[in-house]
Design a protein that fits this description.
The complex is a heterodimer of chains A (about 325) and B (about 400). Chain A is an all-alpha fold and about 325 residues long. Chain A has helices spanning about 1-30, 35-40, 50-60, 65-75, 85-95, 100-135, 140-155, 160-175, 190-195, 195-220, 225-235, 240-275, 280-290, 295-320, 325. Chain A starts with a helix and ends with a helix. Classes of the chains: A mainly alpha (about 325), B mainly alpha (about 400). At the A-B interface, helix 1, helix 7, helix 8, helix 12 and helix 13 of A face helix 3, helix 10, helix 11, helix 15 and helix 17 of B.
Chain lengths: ~325, ~400
């Protein structure tokens, strides 16, 4: 077991290193911006003194490396900086109330996005595995071919197309779910679930297709192995052969695919959140991109990248744990 | 919800009865005797779904406008599906009897989905190339004397205009012309981006595979880092920066977008090209070419590239879909292809709210779906073709 722990720690260290380099890339990219925020909010007629004072307030007069380490040090302590837009607003109104720090702005939205992702995962994962097993069981039948066409179509459609189709059928023509997900804190769980149902269904459609195809492929790959032949010759029913004999051995690639798809989910939410006006981190990101609120953009990017790396890392570790051959690399 | 569950239970009962009746009627024919319950259930479920679809289709022709509106989209979907299937079937039939022996043989083994995909790609290419001649109006042209928001369909009684079969948008531009020009802009830009991504990723991937050593290490680690950032997020971040630079440098934002997406996507191509290249580099004929004293360019273009064509071609199709969808998503979010260029993603965003009128004016709601559907149709077509190619080359029969 010691060697497994060592491998996991190695991967974890590698993940943190990747995240560090990614943070450098993000920070570097953002600082490619010509001019700075002080100039852009004050406009063309700004006096040099005003620009300098805002720069001092926001710490923009420090050298690049100092700023990077300040930012990184803050991030590690959970301080993501001050939102430019909010700081600007506060300086105009003279109040300091409300969420001026990026962390305070992101925290509730991050929770919302996690909620959406969780709802999607709860629907999509069992659905995808059941469909995948069925498609493998009745492979090359009408059902399999129909499922193949259906999943290919939903993988290749843009998210907003699926979103509008679902809005059309489930919100406008048959008012089952609301088409706007106006979620606020203190909402009852059932109501919150109902309001986030449509975005969750869109994401389910996108993610299920991929997971189902991989489940089917993983099981079909195993069906040629001798022990499956043996199980068949024993006279077991096809369902039992697949569920009891093939599925446990196919779990490793399936878990891998699930983790990768959840990683996709974290980033795929951006478009879906915008369509449904869901107050999640994706929408905040797009809004900040439009008004160039750099600290928020930076923080969102870092969070997305961290979630992505973490889930890919999980997939990696899972596949090592489930496959003894990978525990002892040559 | 309760009715749904009751329905499923009723179907289960009917399925049991169906299997039992089949067994009794055919005197235990092996087909019915060995039929698992799941299969019987599936048959009955399919029959119920088909009956419902036919019922909904008939409802779509109902005289009561409220009922007809409710099933309007299902009606269109059913008709569209039948038309698409028929046209694809005719196309395959034509392909089987016209052309060279090679192409006829190819069409004979082709599934209907792949035939549909090829036909669609041909149509899109045709529309994209000949857009200026096909479109009745210019893409930015605000036609004088024509109202905004004319409903698609061309029926004056429903707020349409026969001169504008697909209606006009919120500032009075012809939607049909914009859709046609959108094929040129969106598909053209996506195609150019994919080509650039392949050029970059392929060149560096093959170089890394052939040269190895520190160059391989540096490139591979750089690609690892770039791939650790989700691509849409990274594209959005870089587009933010580009949108500030574009007016200062005087280069259109679209050029920046092409470069950004090409670089991000070339990382994926690099991975594949490197992996494929590494498998080829160890072959004997490469060794022979090296001993002959051939240069780097000869090795990459004359020896490695021809042998890596098949996987790269399939990847090109998939990559094109990704790039196309990324561009559509960026445009939909408002940071992609910039107006006044006609583009499908932007059109969906501008016309999106019309979906909410579907109950009373279904024709008005079709406007955003047309643009979104145009995007979906092309990616679906490309995926169908790639799926068929992959299945054919890997020989996956089971």
């Amino acid at each position: 077991m010691g060697s497994v722990l060592k491998i996991i720690l190695q991967r974890l260290a590698l993940g943190i290193l990747t995240l560090l380099i990614v943070s450098v890339v993000i920070f570097g990219a953002v600082n490619l911006l010509p001019g700075d925020f002080a100039e852009s909010i004050l406009g063309q007629g700004a006096t040099p003194e005003a620009v300098a004072s805002i720069r001092r307030d926001l710490g923009l007069d420090q050298p690049l490396i100092t700023r990077y380490f300040d930012w990184l040090g803050g991030v590690v302590q959970g301080d993501l900086g001050t939102s430019f837009a909010q700081a600007n607003f506060a300086s105009f109104t003279g109040t300091t109330s409300g969420a001026t720090t990026v962390a305070a702005q992101i925290a509730p939205r991050f929770a919302n996005t996690m909620f959406l992702a969780a709802v999607t995962a709860v629907i999509a994962v069992p659905f995808a595995i059941i469909l995948g097993v069925l498609a493998a069981l009745y492979r090359n039948s009408v059902f399999d071919r129909a499922a193949n066409i259906f999943t290919l179509t939903s993988i290749s459609s843009p998210e907003f197309f699926l979103a509008y189709i679902l809005i059309l059928f489930l919100a406008v023509l048959n008012p089952i779910f609301p088409s706007l997900s106006n979620i606020y804190s203190g909402m009852a769980f059932s109501e919150r679930l109902e309001k986030s149902m449509l975005p969750a269904l869109v994401l389910t459609l996108v993610v299920t297709a991929h997971m189902m195809r991989m489940t089917r492929a993983a099981i079909i790959n195993l069906l040629a192995s001798p022990y499956i032949e043996m199980a068949r010759l024993k006279g077991l029913s096809p369902m039992r052969v697949i569920v009891r004999h093939a599925l446990p051995n196919a779990l490793a690639p399936i878990i891998n695919v699930i983790a990768i798809n959840l990683a996709y989910l974290i980033t795929g939410v951006v478009v879906v959140e915008v369509v449904f006006v869901y107050p999640g981190i994706g929408q905040l990101f797009v809004d900040s991109v439009k008004i160039r609120d750099i600290p928020v953009v930076q923080a969102c990017c870092l969070i997305f990248a961290a979630a992505y790396i973490l889930l890919n890392l999980t997939a990696d570790i899972m596949s090592i744990l489930s496959n003894p051959r990978m525990r002892h690399p040559k | 919800m309760i009715w749904f569950a009751v329905g499923l239970i009723v179907i289960a009962a009917v399925a049991w009865g169906f299997r039992f009746a089949g067994q009794a009627a055919t005197r235990q024919a092996p087909y019915f005797r060995d039929m698992p319950f799941g299969v019987a259930y599936g048959y009955i479920l399919a029959v119920v779904a088909l009956v419902w679809l036919v019922w909904a289709y008939v409802q779509g022709h109902s005289a009561d406008p409220l009922v007809a509106n409710k099933f309007f989209f299902l009606r269109i979907a059913v008709e569209g599906f039948i038309i698409c299937a028929t046209v694809a079937w005719l196309f395959r039939l034509a392909g089987r009897s016209i052309g060279t022996a090679w192409s006829r043989k190819m069409f004979r083994a082709m599934p209907l989905t792949a035939a549909f995909g090829i036909l669609m790609i041909l149509i899109y290419a045709f529309v994209a190339i000949f857009a200026p001649w096909l479109a009745p109006y210019g893409q930015e042209q605000i036609i004088p004397g024509v109202a905004a928001n004319i409903v698609p369909g061309g029926d004056p009684a429903l707020g349409g205009d026969p001169a504008f079969p697909f209606g006009t948008d919120q500032i009075g531009r012809d939607i049909l012309s914009r859709l046609i020009y959108g094929a040129q802009n969106t598909v053209g830009i996506a195609f150019a981006t994919t080509l650039l991504a392949f050029f970059l990723g392929g060149t560096f991937g093959f170089l890394a595979a052939t040269l190895g050593g520190w160059l391989d290490q540096v490139l591979s680690r750089a690609v690892d880092v770039l791939m650790a950032i989700p691509s849409l997020i990274f594209a959005l971040l870089l587009m933010t920066i580009a949108s500030v630079w574009a007016p200062r440098v005087g280069i259109p934002l679209t050029v920046f977008m092409v470069l950004i997406i090409a670089v991000i996507d070339s990382t994926r191509v690099f991975r594949l090209a490197r992996a494929v290249g590494q498998n080829i580099v160890v072959m004997d004929y490469i060794e022979a070419a090296k001993l002959r004293g051939e240069g780097m360019g000869y090795l990459v273009f004359k020896e490695i590239l021809p042998n890596a064509t098949a996987p790269l071609l399939a990847e090109f199709g998939l990559r094109f879909c990704f790039v196309f969808l990324t561009i559509a998503a960026l445009s939909f979010l408002g940071v992609g292809i910039q107006p006044p260029l006609a583009d499908w993603g932007t059109m969906v965003r501008d016309l999106g709210s019309f979906v909410n009128y579907a109950q009373f004016a279904p024709l008005a709601a079709t406007a955003p779906l047309l643009a979104a559907g145009a995007i979906a149709m092309l990616t679906v077509a490309v995926n169908f073709v790639v799926d068929w190619m992959l299945q054919r080359s890997s020989g996956l029969k089971e």
